[in-house]
Each structure stands twice: as C-alpha cells, then as structure tokens.
Amino acid sequence: MARYIGPDCKLCRREGEKLFLKGERCFTPKCAFDRRSYVPGAHGKSVQGGGGQRRGGTGRESDYARQLRAKQKARRVYGVLERQFRRYYGIALHQRGLTGLVLLQTLESRLDNVVFRMGFASSRDQARLLVSHGHFTVNGRRIDVPSMLTTTGDQIAVKEGSLKTTYFKELPAFAEARNTPMWVSRDLKNLSGSVLRLPERAEIDANLDEQLIVEYYSR
Known about the structure:
two-stranded antiparallel ribbon; alpha+beta; Ribosomal Protein S4 Delta 41, Chain A, domain 1
C-alpha cells in the first residue's frame, strides 16, 4: 500500500500551522515548525502562510485554494492518501446526516485513530505502526490493518503476547497523563478499551473545516 514517507514537519509547514503529527516532539524546542514556519521549497520564505499567496500578489486567497487546503489538512492530520480520502468521502456522501460530519466521524473510526485517542500511542503515526505490527486485537481477533473502521461496541486491546514488551510495560504511566474523549473508554490496567459511540463534532479537532471539504468535492 502506498504511504507518505517524507518528513512530517514539512506537512505542518505547508499548512502553515502545527498539525501535531509527531506527538510529544511537537511540544518541544526540537519542533521544526517553530524553527522554520515558512512554506517548504526554494521560494518558501516568499510565500505568506499556508495558502500559497506569493509576495506581490493580490493578498486574497481563492475559494478553491481554501477548499483545497482544508482537504489537504484533514488528509494529513489522519495520515490518509488522496484515493483513500476520496473513498471515505464517498462513504459519507451515501449515509444519512451531514456529509462533512459523517466524513470526520468515519476518519475518527479508523483503528489507528482509535488507538491514538485511547492514549496507547503518542501520535497517529505511532498508532499506525503499532497496529500494522499486529500488537492489537479487535473483539479478540488480531488485526494489523490500521485503516479498519471500528463500530460502536468494538473492544480494542493490546495482544497478550505484546504485553511483555518494554513499550507496553511502560505505557500505563505515559497514557495516564493523556485525556481520552467521551466516545471511547479505556482500561489502563488491562490495556484495553472500547468504542462507546460515534464522536460528536465538538469532540473532533476544531481546526478542521468539513464544509470546505464538501465544497471541494462538490465542484
């Protein structure tokens, strides 16, 4: 499966804001965005913000540019490539409810995101790696597909054999400091949790603009 293998910090710089793709590192002075917040590329310092407006331009970002940036930001936050993101939009389009909200709920339902939300990983990238290495089970079955969509009632747990590894032995102390949203539950003693319901809009990242994403695909 195709995946992005470039620097995560370059994605934050392109969007003109921190997307917190590298977990705890984003809160330290080592964060590349704090040192070089301009857009990457040969002419990065002449570009104002993430919208791509170059020096000497009109200063007004087009509607298409704003829609594109909203879509790209959501893709990068969840670590999804274009073809897969378009498929998620198609799923949302054919379900009842607000298309934009259903799209975000679908993205939140990915197994790697649920593992991240439960505090079992410091970033979605790390959660994706842990899942792909087969460290988690869903309803008692070992799963190594990070893009698997979970549903209400699904039980997620660290595989029994993985509990002996150094990472998972130290995980409870790390995870205890992280808050979990109300739509998931977790048991730090047994390193398990469950999906209680779909997240509400207020429980999803506020810096994502789902309406602009819908407008982009509705052109």
